[in-house]
Design brief:
This protein has helices at about 15-20, 60-70, 100-110, 140-155, 170-180, 200-210, 230-240, 255-265, 275-285, 290-305, 315-325; strands at about 30-40, 45, 55, 75-80, 115-120, 130-135, 135-140, 160-165, 190-195, 245-250, 270, 310. By secondary structure, the chain is α/β, with parallel strands linked by helices. It has one domain (about 25-325): TIM Barrel (Alpha-Beta Barrel), CATH 3.20.20.70. Strands 1, 2, 3, 4, 5, 8, 9, 10, 11 and 12 form a 10-stranded mixed beta sheet that branches. It has a two-stranded antiparallel ribbon with strand order 6-7. A hairpin with a 2-residue loop joins strand 6 and strand 7. Helix 4 (about 140-155) packs across helix 5 (about 170-180). This is Delta-aminolevulinic acid dehydratase. Belongs to the ALAD family. Catalyzes an early step in the biosynthesis of tetrapyrroles. Binds two molecules of 5-aminolevulinate per subunit, each at a distinct site, and catalyzes their condensation to form porphobilinogen.
């Protein structure tokens, strides 16, 4: 049936009509808010390349978490910045590490908030790589033991979800087996199954002080032109015990998100990463875009591509904007 009988504009005639037939919605329940936690007291260090985002000491972080809870955002994703680093990232799995302390305090004060912990070594190693390094090479298998120790220490501190982001082969299996052996059979794994060696991570590396001191991460993070490889990575992680999946970054990889969604049924998250956030903030500050409209449009596009969950630094603003629309 074609024009003049078919007139698609009939269903766009008013705001109420458009709401009635809307196919995709962005909701508060879709959001996870990433937070950087650092050592010390009364610390709130602005991250220059990420306006509105800070490195927070635990006492300052609690105020931020209170705001997250009050807005109805279901969870936070924690990244730790230790006071010292070494070659094997021992701060990542120390019982008194910055993340372990933070999780314990946050869960004690806000037991209903989901606390997700990033499991990787790059924030804790003095060389900035995500694993054990020997003669300039990142070693896969020796790294698995350290990642598993990190995951168990996070779970023991009260973490609700473990999110390994290192991209070592076999790390989901190693973490799952270690969690189960330690009695954390009910702790889910949200795996960064598809993580590209992207140019969009620059501001994060400033925030976490995690830039590699030599070389790059292309030997373990995925090559941006590849999509079939992404599906193999997802299939392997599911087979190893991943409960949820992440595609990272989001904006340049929505075709990957759509393909993962089409081929796999589990909960799927995207990480709207630091460089994506910084671009919008910079353009908005210059008056080149409408920040609210552009951000909501982009995040809705991620939902349309198939994401169930969006990890985004925009989360606090997004909730306020969504509430204004009600």
């Amino acid at each position: 049936m074609y024009f003049p009988v078919a007139r698609p504009r009939r269903l766009r005639s008013s705001a109420t009509m458009r709401r009635l037939v809307r196919e995709n919605y962005l909701r508060v329940d879709d959001l996870i808010y990433p937070i950087f936690v650092t050592c010390g007291r009364d610390v709130q260090e602005p991250i220059e390349s990420m306006p509105g985002i800070y490195r927070l000491s635990i006492d300052r972080l609690l105020a931020e978490v209170a705001l997250v809870q009050s807005l109805g955002i279901p969870g936070i994703l924690l990244f730790g910045i230790p006071d010292s680093k070494d070659a094997v990232g021992s701060g990542a799995y120390a019982d008194d590490g910055i993340i372990q302390q933070t999780v314990s305090i946050v869960k004690d004060k806000y037991p209903d908030l989901l606390v997700i912990t990033d499991v990787c070594l790059c924030e804790y190693t003095d060389h900035g790589h995500c694993g054990v390094v020997q003669e300039g090479k990142v070693l896969n298998d020796p790294t698995l033991e350290l990642l598993a120790r990190t995951a168990v220490s996070h779970a023991r501190s009260g973490a609700d979800i473990i999110a390994p982001s290192d991209m070592m082969d076999g790390r989901v299996r190693a973490i799952r087996e270690s969690l189960d052996s330690a009695g954390f059979t009910d702790t889910p794994i949200m795996s960064y199954s598809v993580k590209y060696a992207s140019a969009f991570y620059g501001p994060f590396r400033e925030a976490a002080g995690s830039a590699p001191q030599f070389g790059d991460r292309k030997s373990y993070q995925m090559d941006p032109p590849n999509i079939r490889e992404a599906l193999r990575e997802v299939e392997q992680d599911i087979a190893e015990g991943a409960d949820m999946l992440i595609v990272k970054p989001a904006m340049a990889y929505l075709d990957v998100v759509a393909s993962v969604r089409e081929n796999f049924d589990g909960p799927l998250a995207v990480y709207n990463v630091s460089g994506e956030y910084a671009m919008l903030k910079a353009a908005a500050q210059l008056g080149w875009i409408d920040e609210r409209k552009t951000t909501l449009e982009l995040l809705t596009g991620m939902k349309r591509a198939g994401a169930d969950i969006i990890i985004t630094y925009h989360a606090l603003d997004v909730v306020r904007w969504l509430n204004e629309e009600v």
